[in-house]
Amino acid sequence: MIDFLTLLQVLDSSLRLATPLLLVCLAGLFSERAGIFDIGLEGKLLAAAFVSAAFAAITGSVWLGLLAGILASIMLSLLHGLASITLRGDQIISGVAINFLAAGLTVVIAQDLFGQGGRTPPLKSGGRFEPINFPGATSSKEINDAGPLMQLYSELFSGHSLLVYVALLTVPLSWFILYKTRYGLRLRAVGENPAAVDTAGISVVGLRYSAVIIGGILCGIAGAYIATSLQANFTKDMSAGRGFIALAALIFAKWRPWYALSACLLFGFFFAVDTRFQNILLPAWSLSGFLILIALGLMSYIWRKDYLDKVVLGGLALGISTIALMIVFSVWNTGASSQIKIPVVFIQSLPYVLTVVVLAGFVGKAIPPRAGGQPYVKER
Amino acid sequence: MDIMPRWVDIIIVPLLSLFLAAFLSALLIIAIGESPIAALNLMIEGTLLRSAGWGYMLYYTTNFIFTGLAVSVAFHAALFNIGGEGQAMIGGLGVALVCLFIPWPHWTLAIVGASIGAALFGMIWAGLPAYLQAKRGSHIVITTIMFNFIAAGVLNFFLVDVLKPKGSMDPASANFPSTTHLPTFQDLASLFGFEKAFRSAPANVSFFIALLACIAVWYLIWRSPLGYEIRALGKSGPAARYAGVRPVKIIMIAMMISGALCGMMAINTTQGESERLILNFTEGAGFIGIAVALMGRSHPLGVLLAALLFGFLYQGGAELALWTKIPRELIVVIQALVILFTGALSLMVRAPLERFFMSVQKAKE
Lengths: 380, 365
Description:
The complex is a heterodimer of chains A (380) and B (365). With 380 residues, chain A is mostly helical. In chain A, 70% of the residues lie in helices and 3% in strands. The longest helix of chain A has 30 residues, at 4-33. Chain B has a domain at 62-313. The interface between A and B is large, with 52 and 56 residues.
């Protein structure tokens, strides 16, 4: 069994890893709630990370870095807006292009400015967001001897960068804006039925632009966080798919702010577990039992369904039960240990698998905003 | 509808988009203190003026033909297959299993087996998102993105825990037996007495399979009833349904063909080049397929030409990275701009052209 302090440390790093996910997830929330799909979150995150690190490295001020990162992210948001709102282009394609644009430009410019193979130099103390220690929190040296409450206070609540607290505050703020203000009502309406909003004499284009700009600001903060707080410089492709995980979290959260917080914390927890523990052992019998249960569930679901369901889900059930049998077999063969090592890649893939399950709608169906992905044409 | 003559739509619009992308890239090259003309010269010199350059270019082109065709087939059914990367990875797994565990007597048989393995694995990997789209209404873009990441996990698991030979530190499978090795262009040229042509370039016979795939896709989309149904569904779902097209079936088939094509990319990279299964062998080709399909207007001939262009850019980009201080990622920027102008901002390119042709028409009347 792991002790309380280890658990706290894992939760602490979950929070830190969840922060960029949360900000990007909320960025996607505003954008998609207004009916603009945003595959380009990843690109905005990466661009903001680079620009903030570069500005922080050159000026030595992390605040200028943050500001520049936000501006860079807003620029890409406006490009997305131009393509998908004004020019009524394909939102998915625009997002894909923005991802590539960021992936390419950051390295090209970083190489030109710093000549370190697409990195920025390490940031000095003024160029970083330092951890904020709450009053009375014990230092990391003495934490082993402190009482559990003190450990909780010092390890989990205190000692994060300012942006972590900002991200956490963004959740109630987003909830308030979306559900308690007139602007939020209109924003949600424009994602469901833009024609109705237009008929009421409110600008669809204006609302959608405002939503993507809010998304840009949030992605900008997230980018600055990963480059100036989570790490202390920019490295090539440092966003590492976080934009897509945030997108997954957004679906997992069914496009709602508080759910987004829990989804991002859950995904952050997966990453924290994955970095902290190299070998995750699970009891083989219960694991294979669980897999067989899923397979049986699928089989019973397809009983009265049509041919295609039977082939696809039946095949899936067959695959899952084969894995279960292989686990049983390997334990049987080796005899002694009834624990089985879970490869880390499966923990890493868990967010994506869970998202697909939620998307499939077998467990709590996720229904996107109705007008999402469609450009609004007035004359229709 | 047809304001512009067809040739403008097919030729001028992509060329104009390409010109815009090239212009912005040239500005970027100037901004980092290099000469765009010199860069272009270097790219042409390293790619088109040497047979080895051609060998590298056609190697990249082979990948992009497969993924470009894959994205095109899905586009025709109004589906956006962004999961080419994952389907190619799983296709590579299929190639590796076929090459490692079946004793092939000769490469001619091995390539058939590997193609089937790659196509089958890619097909299955595209089939699940297709099923979720067709029967459960889950957005195919999101599910295929998720499946890309899951595929990366699966590939990693197989390379680290299953296929890695004992005692090896590299996350890679064992080398394929020599009977499965595909002849490269160098081998083919030596047959005709040109020993020095295509030296050490990775292009191999799978290029010809890619060309065959172009013809097959052309036949499928424009000459077969199935292709007609795919296009009908892509143009208008309700109309196709009214005409008796079954959307579930067509979505499944279109996506599975798309997945099979992406999977077959792996015969070029895995069986043809590395001759073992490695991590990251796809090198983003699944995503470049999107740019290729957009640029090639989802037509096999257009895809072939666009794939050649991107092959040129990739090989040229490697030359630039070697001889100048322009990093390889410049190509990624060009790729982004091409996607932007041919896809998302296409109205910006088309609107002025349409206005021009409108005024020409009015002047005629």
